[in-house]
Amino acid sequence: MKEMLITVLCSCLLACMAFSLPAESNPAALNPVGEAGISGGFTYVHDPRENPAAMADILVNPEAVYGFSPNPASTRLGTYSDYDWTDPVLVAKAREERRAYHESMESMTDILYRMRAEGASIEEMAKAVSAERNRLRLAAHQDDPEGLAKVRESNLKTYGHEEGPTLEQLYEKYGSWTVILQKAFSPNPGMDACCGLYDEYYWLYKELGYAEE
Questions:
Q1: Which of 6, 77, 146, 191 would bridge 57 by S-S if both were Cys, CB 3.0 to 4.6 A apart?
Q2: What is the pLDDT of residues 46-72, one digit of tens each?
Q3: Rounded-to-integer distance, Cα 67 and Cα 64, Å
Q4: pLDDT-derived band of residue 39, with 50, 70 and 90 as boundaries?
Q5: Please, what's the b/e burial string for 88-103 (b: 16 or more CB within 10 A of its CB; e: otherwise)?
Q6: Hey, which residues does 39 pair with through a beta bridge?
Q7: Contact at 8 Å (CB) between 44 and 193?
């Protein structure tokens, strides 16, 4: 997905976005245990505490499985703060669902690639991809009624709609279909940090400008 996403977005957004492939894979995805971790010996190669985009929604929690938990005051992730992020079983399930959500975003890349080949405009692609992202966020919890309720509640608090942001809201916020298309592929690094996936998707934060090397 990594290479296709970067290649297609480069072509679609032309000079509006500058992407580059990561020089090497991240060893933390294979060996997440470090010498001096935030929680129980765990540490990230790339520290989420140094990323304002991540820390906007989470708190350092030494008792949590991966050292972080959602900030109750966060509009986006506060809904998830009542989960027990110290429970390895619960966090393992959240990690699995989170990775599945990331992988499901390949359908967005497929839409982008197809529409680009058909000569669609940036506006048309942004609308289609944003709608698909809303769908995927709900579909990721189709077998988890509690998780689905959390997503709907988070959407309602953030956007006033259980299904996610409308196209009108997105354009009012960003004022550019190019930016909306970029944002559609943007992850939430805070939730990834809570789920032990921050290093695994750090390449994506860099490509989209949410982290610096």
A1: 77
A2: 999 999 999 999 999 999 999 999 999
A3: 5
A4: low
A5: eeebeebbeebbebbe
A6: 42
A7: yes
